[in-house]
């Protein structure tokens, strides 16, 4: 099929100044190639395919344009071979193999290139390939050895990484070669470079091979302006024991606005922002990402903005971002009905985001009045999450029977969720298991069955902690916030304080990515714990962070979770929103479970 050629001078996204000169005499091909490679560096491989096809249309004999097409259709850090559906896998393997073979033939056969260049006389290709071009084209043959999907993707990934390693040995001073090699290494074990529990490199991961490649490249001229290098370094360091290193934060700041219309590039620095508790920067960069995404649709950047706003106590920002995300797709049902690729498996969970926001901000009445999706089988995660949220709302407002009814409907709808449905790097069923334990705990708490409540809430927290790393986390409000709030309400001050300390990262109880420094919810709870234990010096130590966090919030915050009885409204009364300390009831003041014959 002939590609309709679009002049590079036509209106297009602003992708910044990055360029990689290749062997072509056609200026359109050079510009489209640059765009394709930038999109790859920004993890937008679909748009990269379009750009490389445009480059080929203008110069069919440009070997590097065919190399770029092969690179773009292959596996990547966010989409390894295992996440391709069968149809997508077959098409990508075929296209990648043909493009890689075409690049190799053009690199080897000057006579063929010259004869075809005469056909495209408006822009003949230079056939004198640079040595590094020949090298990366040869390495690409290791990724696509035939036109069929690999039977052993891991073995293919390692062969390709080894091939790029040989290229790096010769051209290691070239930043792009370093980036391509590091990318090949990281795709051997994507999202699994580090053992989160120990902070050591993961078993069988090439983590310590990646490190010197990226660090050497960062010292080279032009590193500060290279989107691929800066992007990969953030992915390398974010799950490490030290995501807050000066080098990492410096890299994040350099990347922020480097590719103006690539939302994911704006978003990437926020992977580190949230790990160091810089919620303001995270909101600002994610907002810019959503503006870029208004020009090119994406979802994760918007959810990143929502996540940061939730931790910062900015209800309006979070709700507005949810509305924009929901409106960004004219027909969600039409999109989710596409079976190849299976879009429902990948993006349906985004529609449950509104529910998580409403829970975070205690919007119990609104949740109770919320409509369920019309097509509950297609929108199965959203349906199950909505029933979960309604159950929490009824429990918080003291209507136990209706809460139990929603729990029954939650489990009924959860049974319709296929195992293939995803929530970022987690399975949707695993995230719903967190909610299941949480709902059991909340209902038991309202029934004053405190021993059962603590058991369920601890389980929810454990399941939450065990979810695979993703940014943002698939479960958007830490279960620990609810557990600690209710512990504190029942007078278990020291236990609640321990949970808050862990969440804030004031000790090493939790793995590094599980800590949420300087978040307003845990700070407000921790301060109350310290005050009630008369640890006033420690109160002074967190006072500045808390004051700044409260100034950034757009709602009054009195507890780490609105499920706490004195922070929630009941069906008979709306709790006033003043923030002054109030005389607490005997229940809120710490009537211990042991008085009711139960223990933690």
TrEMBL record:
Organism: Emericella nidulans (strain FGSC A4 / ATCC 38163 / CBS 112.46 / NRRL 194 / M139)
Protein name as it appears in the record: Uncharacterized protein
Compositional bias (Basic and acidic residues): 590-600
UniProt keyword terms in alphabetical order: TPR repeat
PANTHER family: TPR DOMAIN PROTEIN (AFU_ORTHOLOGUE AFUA_3G00240), TPR DOMAIN-CONTAINING PROTEIN
SUPFAM superfamilies: TPR-like (SSF48452)
Region: Disordered, residue numbers: 573-600
TPR repeat placement: 29-62
Domain of life: Eukaryota
